[in-house]
Amino acid sequence: MSLAVVFSRARHGLDAPLVTVEVHISNGLPAFQLVGLPETSVKESRDRVRSAMVNSGFAFPDRKITVNLAPADLPKEGGRFDLPIALGIIVASGQLAEKSLNGYEFCGELALSGEIRTIVGEIPVAIACRDAGREVVLPMLNAQQAQQVPKVAVHGAEHLLQVHSFLLAQQPLPAIPALPQREQQHLPDLADVKGQAHAKRVLEICAAGEHNLLMLGPAGTGKSMLAQRLPGIMPPLTEQEALATAAIYSIAGLKRNLTDWQQRPFRSPHHTSSAVALVGGGSVPRPGEISLSHHGILFLDELPEFPRKVLDVLREPLETGVVHISRAARQAEFPAQFQLVAALNPSPTGHHQDGRATPEQVMRYLNRLSGPFIDRIELQIEVPLLPKGMLSQHTQEESSASVRQRVLAARQLQLVRQGKANARLTGSEIADFCPLQQADARFLEDTIHRFKLSARTYHKIIKVARSIADLQQQTQISRAHLMEALSYRALERLLSYLKN
């Protein structure tokens, strides 16, 4: 048999499109030609495959070898095609029957010794193979991660010879290491934060409805401590959400900790991060921090220190939950349904009333944040300095476990009522699931016009009020809920105060 066909998978955003590896061996001068839009890393597979086959004891054909990676218009990158190319040559040269490849797909990079090295993006590959009804052979470490994908047959291999023996039905592939037992991680506890009852209340609302949060206050008041304790009071990821998050980490070359599979991600990039680092990009589009925070929290500390143009690229993903990356030769779409939690000082000196900064300096500092960006943050609170004597008091603060029970109850109400968190409601869904009494609707609209707030803010206040009502297990949004939601606009009040 001089022609062999092997199935593999490429990497294109979060997708793993099918690649048919066609190997033809013909008479002629010895040559190894690779076609099908391969990038440099794929072209180099010719030398890796030749050495791996020879060092594994296979005969490398001394003839003309043509390898086509179809479809031809799909860019191919990485070393993932080494294993299917080697198997195609082995089959085309008569060292393995072609029928033994039926029902399998292969991905893996070959070392010169024939060992199989890990690849990037095993989760999307396993999902695509499951949907295609085929089994997949992956490097052993990738196979362990891919076991998280339900209803797919995953095989792990460490050497080319193991795959050959498996396809000959001589011996099974090595057993994939068992998944570690999932356990509840010991996250930072809310009880560690002294005082700040107001901020804890808002943190609970934030967790209940998946709202964005901005904390304004002097240095050392506990803003970062509060943000780090948000994952501990949030509901765990569902299996579907955990798999989507793992897929993003997979294509980014990162591994999810299998022991805390359902723990929501918490990302905290430094303020020197670029726009590409936050939203993703590159010649081969890769996910950024907002996608790595999918179904989790993106914490931006010292918010005004981020360049304004970097923060403004977050505006669209905050609304849509996805980010589109377009390059000359590549386009990709990554999910980015994250909660933004931000912290900042009220002035460049740390406090706007300490006398060391003029109102003009404070305004110049806060104007690093654009109005449309601030408008997308539902909860804006001030975290003040603790009163004298609070730090030395030995008071029992409420634990994260206690707060989490209320959050879980509120989230369950939302899932039963509308199938999603309150922050994800669209305009038409707000009318259906967040109805207001006529007098309350007029009150809210009058308030919005009085303070010159946007229509977006109008809808966000209603969604926050809906979360407050859910925490109290109340079906109807009341005037009290609306007034509490309106009180959480600290940054807008500060800017209005400074302007006047």
From TrEMBL:
Instruction: State the name under which the record lists this protein.
Output: YifB family Mg chelatase-like AAA ATPase
Q: Which InterPro entries match?
A: CHLI-like (IPR045006), MCM_dom (IPR001208), Mg_chelat-rel (IPR004482), Mg_chelat-rel_C (IPR025158), Mg_chelatse_chII-like_cat_dom (IPR000523), P-loop_NTPase (IPR027417), Ribosomal_Su5_D2-typ_SF (IPR020568), Ribsml_uS5_D2-typ_fold_subgr (IPR014721)
Question: From what superkingdom does this record's organism come?
Answer: Bacteria
Q: Keyword Coiled coil, does the record have it?
A: no
PANTHER family with a match to the protein in the record: COMPETENCE PROTEIN COMM, MAGNESIUM-CHELATASE SUBUNIT CHLI
In this chain the Mg chelatase-related protein C-terminal domain maps to 398-489
Query: From what organism does this protein derive?
Result: Rheinheimera muenzenbergensis
- What residue stretches are annotated with the Magnesium chelatase ChlI-like catalytic domain? 189-387
Question: Which is an annotated Pfam family here?
Answer: Mg_chelatase_C
What does the UniProt keyword field contain?
A: ATP-binding, Nucleotide-binding
